[in-house]
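WARN retry 2 of 3 for item q-0093 after timeout on previous attempt; input resubmitted unchanged.
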Amino acid sequence: MLDFWNDIWVNRTPIALEVAWIDIHDVGIQVKDMWFERGWKLEELYTNILIVLGISHCVWLKVSASIFI
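OK item q-0093 returned
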C-alpha cells in the first residue's frame, strides 16, 4: 500500500515534503483511500493540498499501474 503523504508516487518526492502542514485527520491515508472509480476524492482531505501547494486546479494522468502525474 502507498502512503498518500510519505511515499513517492506523484513526483520525485513525497507530497509531505511539498506541503507546510498535514492535518492530523489526514495522517495515515493511503493512495487507494483517495481514489474512486471516477477520480480523486481530494475534497475529502482536511489538508487542502491545492491551496497549500498553490495550485488552482489539477489533472491527474495515470501513466502506469502505480504512477500518476
